[in-house]
């Protein structure tokens, strides 16, 4: 699942990632090149809209919330944390209830460094929409938004958005949280793979297999290739130091590559495809 987050101030990429998710997942969800020099310290402008991955467990398509932890800064209040820092994805009352702070005024300053658990929306609907693969994005309606404009910007229809959100009329008020279906590519990895069920929104990518494999979603197809050695580029954000072999068995072809060899009968084409991350091994065929 994804959150559509608008930056409330200038922020480094790493600062946005620290609020919600790991750096690699944030870069992938926004199709940013993590191999570019200084990516983690790149400054993003105030008002920029980014897609933030929300890792949550969904049972039979039921909505679940995902919680992140936040350390209060000087002058923070429950209201500013909810409305500004987390862009209206949560209310001050929800944060108050989650943290057992019933007696705290939402506008009273919090202690600097005070730890808060912040619940956020997360929607899966079995990763499908009208029997097609989909990733769901939670979106906070802004002043001036209309449902047709929102639907158009995400390449979906007003009817689809209304059905997903159980809306009786095509009207959304500012600060409403809508669920938007995004076209996606689904994997078919076996149950034994730790990344089974991987699904990628169209036009983006995800890193898997310890950030060693990059799976991208083009229109309708999932393409997995060998990624960079993420540990060398950004060691602080990498889960493993080196990547397992990505060469197909009994072949010189590497993951994601295609090899052609002329023969008397024509041209012999060999490819190497990713089959999931099983027991620490990158399976290929």
UniProtKB/TrEMBL annotation:
Q: Which GO terms describe its biological process?
A: immune response
Q: Which InterPro entries match?
A: LysM (IPR018392), LysM_dom_sf (IPR036779)
Write out the GO MF terms: peptidoglycan binding
LysM domain residues are 68-118, 137-180
Q: Which residue windows are transmembrane per the record?
A: none
Pfam family for this entry, one? LysM
Its cellular-component GO annotations read: plasma membrane
Q: What is this protein called?
A: LysM domain-containing protein
Q: What is the lineage of its organism?
A: Eukaryota, Viridiplantae, Streptophyta, Embryophyta, Tracheophyta
